[in-house]
Write a structure and sequence with these properties.
It contains no helices and five strands. By secondary structure, the chain is mostly beta strands. A three-stranded antiparallel β-sheet has the order 1-3-2, with no helix packed on it. Strands 4-5 form a two-stranded antiparallel ribbon.
Length: 69
């Protein structure tokens, strides 16, 4: 995994951390040693189960966002 982005999941919503972004193995996210912070691959592309098309992991999440962690 390319750990290029580091975010606080309490304040930032991106597709890579949404439960509707198709990544059942969570291979594009990794917990950080800081509480509530995660690394994610912003360039990864997966299908959004709601939108029915591919989105990037770093894309700003839609209003239907639900955190998967």
């Amino acid at each position: 995994m390319n750990k290029d982005m580091h975010i606080d999941i309490r304040h930032i919503k991106v597709c890579a951390l949404c439960q509707f972004w198709w990544d059942p193995m969570c291979s594009y996210i990794e917990p950080s040693n800081v509480p509530n912070h995660f690394y994610y691959d912003a360039k990864a592309r997966r299908k959004c189960c709601l939108k029915k098309y591919d989105t990037y992991g770093g894309q700003t999440a839609c209003p239907n966002y639900k955190c998967k962690v």
